[in-house]
Write a structure and sequence with these properties.
- The complex is a heterotrimer.
- By secondary structure, chain A is an all-alpha fold.
- Chain A contains 8 helices and no strands.
- Chain B is mostly helical.
- The chains are: A mainly alpha, B mainly alpha, C mainly alpha.
- At the A-C interface, helix 3, helix 4 and helix 7 of A face helix 2 of C.
């Protein structure tokens, strides 16, 4: 019963409005803390010197890109199974941020790879899967953009997210497999630097910052989607009339 | 149940037989894409043999995509698709039948053309044989996953391009295992592992894709 | 403290371009997302209001 209460768009609209500042400020504070650890507390790596400091954004961004995709698939599955409107809206609100983090992970990966491996890009399993993940995000966003009908768009996007979610592990595995067979390239991938505790802490703090940021941004977006879809209801009219 | 599947299959095959033009276009497309590569990268036989398996596989995926946007579109336009979906027969079988028909019409002919292109690319005989097996196992995946994309983009403006965007990333494992099998034969590491993985991916697509495509079709027709 | 001076900090042991290239673009991406979101907030409201007036007429 309680859950249904929060799943009603009007309740959630107001709840989200109250939560956004907390998550936004949280994201800001965590970012500052994480950057402080990353740049002033974490020691110089003896192998990679200062270049490894990219890890504090690269790894959290890569994590987020995958997490967000899974969360979208989760909301899509819930929406398809229980026909809850709000879950579809959540899935839609998350996609742009997920694509953004995927791009950031690729970008920082390239700028880390150049000094470390001597190449901007290598067809390594992780990088390639990340690239394909970006393609999936783009496909989903394009599908949503192409479908005007709300109900159809919600469902079609969720189905695509789901089949992508089944496919991502297979893609990762296949690329990894392919990569081990093509050892021709002379690039040897150095492992991530043996992790000092403080480095791990910095990465975790940055990951939390990314989470908070994602939640704040997604809530802003979901509020807008709710208002747009509920504009015929009295409560939405009242909100629009306020200013 | 089986009768319905067979009916869908027979219907699509008959329709395809009446419009032989479409069918030929897809096959010519396959030949043309593959023939452009030697012109682009140069005629050295060693290099062509090196890139051949990948090029032929990429060309095959593109050729199958070309025809996929029409998988449901024609039936949608004349209204028969709606009838079939609303009929008491399960939509899954409808999708399965259509994907199967697509494979028979567009996938199987690729098998007949591929050896000729393989010779153009200077592939040895055993590599061509493996290419045939990998295409035999792999082209059903293209039709099955493609049916999901065709159902999702049904009736959308720019549906064909969108379909390509949605489905190509999903084809990656088939491409890797398929082209990898041929590479394996040529480099002496063997093709069995690749082919079994390709087969597993095919079975998985066969189990999952028709269900998702059927829901997508119902969503698109609502 | 890891850094002797600010210029040391910006140099990042010779990897300044790569470190700041990464952090800079990440910051830009986040900023662009936030700015786009803020800017479209007003647009959405105005559009919805207009749609409402339309529908009421």
């Amino acid at each position: 019963m309680n859950l249904y209460h929060f799943a009603s768009p009007s309740t959630f609209y107001h709840l989200a409005g109250k939560l956004i500042p907390w998550f936004a400020w949280g994201a800001g504070i965590l970012t500052l803390w994480g950057l402080y650890i990353g740049f002033f507390q974490a020691p110089t790596d003896f192998q990679q010197s200062e270049a490894y400091r990219i890890i504090f954004i690269h790894v959290p961004a890569a994590w987020m890109s995958m997490f967000i995709y899974l969360v979208m698939a989760f909301w899509g599955a819930i929406g398809l199974a229980f026909n809850t409107r709000l879950s579809f809206m959540m899935a839609r609100a998350l996609a742009p941020t997920g694509a953004m983090f995927t791009f950031v992970a690729l970008w920082t990966g390239a700028w880390w790879g150049k000094p470390m491996w001597g190449a901007w890009w290598v067809w390594d399993a992780r990088l390639t899967s990340e690239l394909i993940l970006l393609f999936l995000y783009v496909g989903i966003i394009a599908l949503w953009a192409a479908i005007d009908d709300i109900k159809r768009g919600d469902r079609a996007g969720s189905l695509l997210t789901l089949i992508g979610a089944i496919n991502v592990p297979i893609i990762y595995f296949s690329v990894k497999w392919w990569n081990t067979l093509h050892q021709g390239a002379s690039v040897s991938l150095t492992k991530a630097p043996s992790m000092a505790a403080i480095m791990l802490q910095g990465m975790l703090v940055m990951a939390f910052a990314a989470w908070f940021y994602t939640i704040a941004v997604a809530l802003v977006r979901v509020r807008r989607i709710i208002l747009e879809r509920e504009r015929h209801t009295d409560w939405a009219k009242a909100i629009l009339a306020e200013d | 149940m089986h009768r319905f599947l067979l009916a869908v299959l027979r219907r699509d095959l008959t329709l395809a037989a009446r419009r032989r033009g479409d069918w030929l276009i897809a096959q010519f497309f396959f030949v043309m894409v593959a023939s452009l590569f030697p012109l682009g990268v140069g005629p050295e036989p060693e290099m062509l043999a090196r890139i051949g398996p990948g090029v032929l596989w990429v060309a095959a995926t593109l050729a199958s995509l070309l025809s996929l946007s029409r998988l449901f579109a024609d039936d949608h336009q004349d209204g028969s698709l709606e009838h079939m979906v609303l009929s008491p027969e399960p939509t899954v079988l409808l999708v399965l039948g259509k994907a199967l028909a697509h494979w028979l019409i567009y996938g199987i002919p690729l098998l007949a053309i591929a050896p000729v292109l393989g010779i153009q690319f200077n592939l040895p005989a055993d590599a061509i044989l493996t290419l045939e097996i990998s295409l035999l196992l792999g082209t059903p995946i293209l039709s099955l996953l493609g049916s999901v994309g065709a159902a999702l983009t049904l009736g959308l403006r720019g549906g064909g391009v969108l379909l390509t965007l949605l489905i190509l990333p999903l084809y990656v494992p088939a491409l890797i295992f398929g082209a990898g099998a041929v590479d394996g034969v040529m480099s002496g590491t063997g093709a069995e592992a690749h082919l079994s993985l390709l087969g597993a991916f095919m079975v998985l697509s066969l189990i999952i894709a028709p269900w998702i495509a059927a829901s997508a079709l119902r969503v698109s027709l609502e | 403290m890891e850094w002797a001076s600010w210029s040391d900090f910006w140099k990042m042991g010779g990897y300044g371009l790569y470190v700041w290239g990464s952090y800079g673009v990440t910051a830009a991406c986040v900023l662009i997302e936030v700015i786009l979101l803020r800017r479209s907030a007003g647009d959405t409201r105005r559009r919805l209001k207009r749609m409402q007036q339309w529908e009421e007429e």
